[in-house]
Structure formats: structure tokens, C-alpha cells
Design brief:
This protein is α/β, with parallel strands linked by helices and 513 residues long. The chain has two domains: 13-31 and 401-512, Sandwich (Immunoglobulin-like); 37-396, Glycosidases (TIM Barrel, Alpha-Beta Barrel), CATH 3.20.20.80. Helix content is 25%, strand content 26%. The chain is built from eleven helices and 27 strands. The strands form seven sheets. The chain has an eight-stranded parallel β-barrel with strand order 2-5-8-9-10-11-12-13, surrounded by four helices. Strands 16-20-21-27-23-24 form a six-stranded antiparallel β-sheet, covered by helices on one side. It has a five-stranded mixed β-sheet with strand order 17-1-22-26-25, with no helix packed on it. A hairpin with a 2-residue loop joins strand 25 and strand 26. Helix 6 crosses helix 7, helix 7 packs parallel to helix 9 (289-303) and helix 10 runs parallel beside helix 11. The protein is globular and about 70 Å long. Bound molecules: alpha-L-arabinofuranose (AHR). Alpha-L-arabinofuranose is lined by residues 45, 89-91, 192-193, 315, 363-364, 369.
């Protein structure tokens, strides 16, 4: 065989690549799509100690608070620049009657929270408390409304109550309750999990219900509602198909729920005590969201090539057994470095589909499932997942940069190799190129070469890292800083090529300019 010049160059190129464990090529001049900041959204439900004890302690509490909201949680959330917050559920939303949660607190009726532990809900945290909280932390509210056990009238009136500026019955009622100006809520969810806890409906029936309910949710003034239909869970592609066919452009967003849960029956595994197989199961499942997204998106593309309907992954995250000794209905679980990896990988994947995914909400914000904050009476701790959101803030509203990653290292699990390094890149308004990376390998550092193709002359690169001694390291009320966000200065850049070793079991952010 005769060697020509191209073959020789290719051979030399391969040699250059093989000197590294992984190579990332970022097309810095090809960014088109903006990563919606709403992908970094959160979810708060009347579930366990999420609202009561987690966000709200009431104005008479000994726990330091501002108008009933705990100060430590307020500050932690302000720091995260949360773009939106979904409320009041979840399954709770389809049993919630908003009128029970307005007016003097002592007069509000009580109900039983049948979905979550059968506890008495006193409705002391209602519409005003939630929407004022959103204003305090500077986030956009997302109201998830009752289709399962509510009525068209009830939903229409709720929209009028929060958004009408005129001389209308609901606006006047709001004024009587102490709020002059409307809140101008944009995001409303028409039902939640309507195939399950939201009414056990068939998709054809829900599609008709959606059309009817949504008709009466009116725009007030300049505020245009963004109506979100209750979407599928995981692999229920037929739900997406039927809703796209039958609702089409009548919805602005279609939701999707995806948890890395092992199964709905039996043990879901411990949040803190897991072996290598369990670790890799969760990591594989978090990566498994990508083919699921692709399939839902391809159905949406078929019915809506213009991309008028956005995909909103308004529940996602890990779901393990509850912390031993806690109420099984409260879904309280600890949060380890493994959870940080799930968050990092999932957010990297959402960024990649920024042309269709416009919102996502991790479940849930405080004390429930993959919480970013845990509280115990007056104590509070930030979880490893909190630090991922803190680190990834730079991607909010940044321009997605297309990238290709190749790696010579895989982790063997279940007969296949899991890619050891997961990445996403964006360019933010301040001119920085942001590269978020997750090295899932428990003990191998990864030598990475990252080419910033088409970038202006890059002079410096800084970084941050989240790592710990063990995969199950977590923060406790007594040791709140076992996993934190630290500076990382190991990356070097020359001729627009970054060379860096990404430590085993870490999430890293590089910022280059
Ligand atoms: O996040 C907990 C629950 O999970 C939500 O209430 C429900 O929508 C989902 O099944």
C-alpha cells in the first residue's frame, strides 16, 4: 500500500489524540441557539417538609424569618438566581383548591394531603405567600393548576385573581386580601401527570380536557400566558404523540417527567449507602434521558417542525428510599456526590437540546427527593446538587456551542461502556466560553485536550470543581462543607487548546476568554 500525505497526517493526528484520554472540540464560532435560563428551574410542592419547615415557618417562628420565609433559605436561593419555581405540585396540585389558601390565615379551611403522608394541610401557605416569595427571591412563578379534581371556573378565576388589573371580581378580592397590583404570572400548567395522580386519564380524553380548560385561561393586559400541557412520563411516547396531534399549537409547552428511579415497587436503593453497581445504574439512567428526549423531540418535530411548542421537563432528578426513620410519604432523602453527577450530566444534556427544551425543574427545591437544600428545624445545609446549580449558572441564557467529545476510557456496566466524560459548552454575554464537565470515573483522572475552534485568541482559563473523597460523600448539619464548590486552577491554554486533567469523580467548570 502506498502512503499518501493525507494518510500520514491522519496517522499523526491519531497519535496526537491517543496521547490524551479524551478530546473535546468546541466550535466556538458556531453558536446559534440560546440556552433558556428556565432549564435551571426548580419545583416546590406541598409535600413533606418542602413548603412547611423548608421555605415557610410562619412570621411567629423562632427560626429567623422575613414575613414567615426562613432567612437562610431565602439567601441561599437568591444566590442561585433561580429562573422559575413551580408550585403547588405535583400530585398535590390536582387536589388543591386555591381559594382555600387566600384571606386571613386563621380562617383558611383545612384539608388532608392524601398524596403525601395523609397529613393535615392548613393552607397557611397559599397564593399570596407563594407569589410574594417568588418576588423576594427574584424568580418567575409557574403555577400548576388543578384539572383532576378542579373545575374550569376555578382555574379561570385563579388566573383572573393573580393577573387581572381591572375592576373585576377576582382582582377586587385580591385587593381585599392586601395585594393591589397583579403578579402577572406567565407560566401555568394545565394539570399534572393527568395520566396518573392527576386523574388517570387517557391521552385522548386529557387532550380534550386541556382544550376546554385552557380556553378559559385568559390573558390580562399585556401579560401573555404560557400554557403548559401535562405531558408524558419517561417512555410514554404515545402520550406525546396524541397531545401533539390533538392539542397542537393550543399549548405553548408540553411537559415531560423523568426520574432516575430503579423501579416504582420495592426498594429504590439507599441515597447514601450504595455499591459500584448501584452507582453505575443511576449514572446510566441519568444518561438514559438523552434517547428518551430524542424520541419525544422527534415526535414533536414531526407534528411541529416550526418548533412552536416547547418541551418542558418540569420534574426530573434522583429518587431513592427515604432517609431511615423519616415519614415514607415525605420523600426526604440525602444527597451525595452521585446526585451532583446526575445533576451535571442531566443539565449538560438539556443544554444540548436547547432548541426544543425551554424549561426544566429539578424535583424538589427543599427537603424532598433531589433537594438542593436540606433543613432540620433551625439548621440548614446546601447539598452537592446545590453546588452544581451554583456552578452551572453561567449557562443560563448563554449561547450553546456545538461540541464533539471522544474518549478512550469507558466504564463497564451491564455489558456496555458508559462514556467517562460528559460535557457541555456555551458562550455567555460576558464573552467567556463555559465548559462544564463530569468525570464519572470513581478513580481515574482524565487527561483532556480541548480545542476551542474558531475562538478569538484565548488568553486565560479559570475553573471551579466539586469533588470529594468518596462517591457517597454528603453534607450533614454537623459537617456542611464535605462537598462544596472550590476554585480549580489546573487548566492551561496555549494556541486555543486547553490541556487539563479532570480529577476522578468530579464536576468541573472551565471558563476561557
Ligand atoms: O415529585 C414528586 C411527585 O412525583 C410529584 O408530585 C408527581 O408529579 C410525580 O409523580
Amino acid at each position: 500500500m502506498k502512503l499518501n500525505l493525507t494518510m500520514i497526517l491522519l496517522f499523526l493526528g491519531c497519535l496526537a489524540v491517543s496521547a490524551q484520554d479524551a478530546q473535546l472540540i468546541i466550535h466556538a464560532d458556531q453558536g446559534k441557539e440560546q440556552i433558556s435560563k428556565h432549564i435551571y428551574g426548580h419545583f416546590s410542592e406541598h409535600l413533606g417538609r418542602c413548603i412547611y419547615g423548608g421555605i415557610w415557618v410562619g412570621p411567629d417562628s423562632d427560626i429567623p424569618n422575613t414575613d414567615g420565609y426562613r432567612n437562610d433559605v431565602l439567601e441561599a436561593l437568591k444566590n442561585l438566581q433561580i429562573p422559575n419555581l413551580r408550585w403547588p405540585g405535583g400530585c398535590f396540585a390536582d387536589e388543591y383548591h386555591w381559594m382555600d389558601g387566600i384571606g386571613p390565615r386563621e380562617d383558611r379551611p383545612r384539608m388532608v394531603n392524601t398524596n403525601w403522608g395523609g397529613v393535615v394541610e392548613d393552607n397557611s401557605f397559599g397564593t399570596h405567600e407563594f407569589l410574594n416569595f417568588c418576588e423576594l427571591i427574584g424568580t418567575e412563578p409557574y403555577l400548576s393548576m388543578n384539572v383532576g379534581s378542579g373545575s374550569v371556573e376555578e382555574m379561570a378565576k385563579w388566573v383572573e385573581y393573580v393577573n387581572s388589573d381591572g375592576d373585576s371580581p377576582m382582582a377586587n378580592l385580591r385587593r381585599e386580601n392586601g395585594r393591589e397590583e397583579p403578579w402577572n404570572v406567565k407560566f401555568i400548567g394545565v394539570g399534572n401527570e393527568s395520566w396518573g395522580c392527576g386523574g388517570s386519564m387517557r391521552p385522548e380524553y386529557y387532550a380534550d380536557q386541556y382544550r376546554q380548560y385552557a380556553t378559559y385561561c385568559r390573558d390580562y393586559g399585556d401579560n401573555k400566558l404560557f400554557k403548559i400541557a401535562s405531558g408524558a412520563s419517561d417512555y410514554d411516547f404515545n402520550w406525546t404523540k396524541v397531545l401533539m396531534e390533538r392539542i397542537g399549537n393550543r399549548m405553548h409547552g408540553l411537559s415531560l417527567h423523568y426520574y432516575t428511579v430503579k423501579g416504582w415497587r420495592g426498594s429504590k436503593g439507599s441515597a447514601t449507602d450504595f455499591d459500584r453497581d448501584e452507582y453505575l445504574f443511576t449514572i446510566k439512567k441519568s444518561m438514559g434521558i438523552e434517547p428518551v428526549l430524542k424520541k419525544h423531540i422527534s415526535l414533536m418535530d414531526y407534528y411541529d417542525p416550526e418548533k412552536n411548542v416547547d418541551l418542558m421537563v418540569d420534574e426530573w432528578g434522583t429518587w431513592f428510599d427515604v432517609e431511615p426513620g423519616t415519614n415514607p410519604g415525605f420523600l426526604y432523602q440525602q444527597n451525595t456526590l452521585r446526585d451532583a453527577f446526575v445533576a451535571g450530566i442531566t443539565l449538560n444534556i438539556f443544554n444540548k437540546y436547547a432548541d426544543r427544551i425551554k424549561m426544566a425543574n429539578i424535583a424538589q427545591i427543599v427537603n424532598v427527593l433531589q433537594a438542593i437544600i436540606l433543613t432540620d428545624e433551625e439548621k440548614m445545609v446546601l447539598t452537592p446538587t446545590y453546588h452544581v446549580f451554583e456552578m452551572y449558572k453561567v449557562h443560563q441564557d448563554a449561547i450553546l456551542l456545538p461540541s464533539d467529545i471522544t474518549s478512550s476510557v469507558d466504564l463497564e456496566y451491564d455489558g456496555e461502556g458508559l462514556p467517562v466524560l460528559n460535557a457541555s459548552s456555551s458562550k455567555s454575554e460576558d464573552g467567556f466560553i463555559n465548559i462544564s464537565l463530569v468525570n464519572i470515573h470513581p478513580d481515574k483522572d482524565i487527561e483532556l485536550e480541548c480545542s476551542l475552534r474558531g475562538a478569538d485568541d484565548v488568553k486565560s482559563v479559570t475553573g471551579q470543581i466539586i469533588t470529594a473523597s468518596d462517591l457517597n460523600t454528603h453534607n450533614t448539619f454537623d459537617a456542611p462543607e464535605n462537598v462544596t464548590l472550590e476554585a480549580f486552577d489546573k487548566a492551561k491554554v496555549k494556541n486555543n487548546v486547553i490541556k487539563v486533567t479532570i480529577p476522578a469523580k468530579s464536576v468541573v467548570l472551565l471558563r476561557a476568554k
